[in-house]
Amino acid sequence: MSEMIAPDPFSPVRSRRLSEEIVRQIARLIDDGSLKLNDRFPSERDLQDKWQVSRPVLREAFRVLEMQGVVESRPGAGRYLVADHVPDPSLTLRRRLQGKTEHLLQVWDAREAVEAKAAELAARRATEQQLDGIRATFERLETATFADLRRYDFNREFHMSVARASGNLVIEEMAALLLTRSNQIGFKESLDDRDWADLQGRHQLIFDAIAAGDPVAARRAVVNHFDVMRRSVGVAAPKARRPAHRGGGRKEKA
């Protein structure tokens, strides 16, 4: 087994989601050959200095990599690289949801219909207080640790805050029911740190459209959000149906 000696490949981490950036940097080091199979990582203290992060952030990043089978912690011996690449996050998510995809897609179809309308109405009706509430939900997600993401349902908070801003109690009730169904399938538990970061970006687009008072863009942002989610589990976005042909058919008697 070889041990990495040269510290040059490691550079200070500059990101609001530090553990995610550590994972990304390790992926780049593997890809460019700076990290090789069976290499031993420097000590936690050395890595804290190189990346300029706290120990909890460092351990959070390595916990994600251990879950993916990329890193192995050996008692008394340190951490070792045991894979030659970091798995593609979409493939990892697809694998974690194996056997549940069909049911989840049906829930997503229903959620898209309800939440696209909720976002459209929110863009027309949301008060400043409601906009602050929506903004607060994804700002909490932005600073959350991976442990926080497991403990709290930030995704539900965001989508429910949009539904409440629609001003329609029926839409709010339907959104709550469908989000519960989504969680019962295990979607939240299937997300890793990178998946949450991707969700954060799409939530920002939805909020921006609502805050701008643009109902068309708000609806489009929600539809795009669910299209991306479908692709993340290996399913193409549904195609629009052709309008029914109205000419040449038999007329039925009244």
Give a verbal description of the structure.
Strands 1-2 form a two-stranded antiparallel sheet. The N and C termini lie far apart (84 Å). The longest helix is centred in the middle third of the chain and has 25 residues, at 101-125. 63% of the residues lie in helices and 3% in strands. With 254 residues, it is mostly helical. A hairpin with a 3-residue loop joins strand 1 (71-74) and strand 2. The model is unreliable at 1-7 and 245-254 (pLDDT under 50). Helix 5 runs antiparallel to helix 12. The radius of gyration is 22 Å and the shape is elongated. The chain is built from 12 helices and 2 strands, in the order H-H-H-E-E-H-H-H-H-H-H-H-H-H. It has 2 domains: 18-81, Arc Repressor Mutant, subunit A (Orthogonal Bundle), CATH 1.10.10; 89-232, GntR ligand-binding domain-like (Four Helix Bundle (Hemerythrin (Met), subunit A)), CATH 1.20.120.
Q: Can you give the mean pLDDT?
A: 80
Q: Going by CATH, what is the homologous superfamily of the largest domain?
A: GntR ligand-binding domain-like
Q: How can the largest sheet be summarized? A: 2 strands, antiparallel
End-to-end C-alpha gap:
84 Å
Task: Kindly provide the name of the CATH class of the largest domain.
Answer: Mainly Alpha
